[in-house]
Write the structure tokens for this entry.
Amino acid sequence: MITALDTNVLLDVFLADRTHGRASQAALREAYDAGGLVACEVVWAEVATFFPTGEAAEAAMERLGVRFVPMDPDDALEAAARWSRFRARAPGEPRRIAAGFLIGAHALRHADRLLTRDRGFYRVAFQGLKVVDPGSGGG
């Protein structure tokens, strides 16, 4: 089972978050053992901003066993379609940026599930995608 990762779970671990760090670390370990971890360029870039160099970020991702799996044009089109539907359904909702839709579309097309703490957004915008919250014990 391949698990796509959202930035927030990785930052919980890399920044030793007091509230979510342990649960995210355990969920990452479990997902790795279940089949592997992947992240798209959006997550890779967001995580890298918290390291002194790109090489340091890449080394940290490799230590966790996270594979870089790039998006393709169909991922971008899927993200655009879901973003458009989301905006049409919830015009009064706070605005969401493209990054979340790109991460969700990538997970939908390249993984079996998404590990994120932003489960509410992904469950609404990406029906059909299995969303796992590290603090919920599996979903």
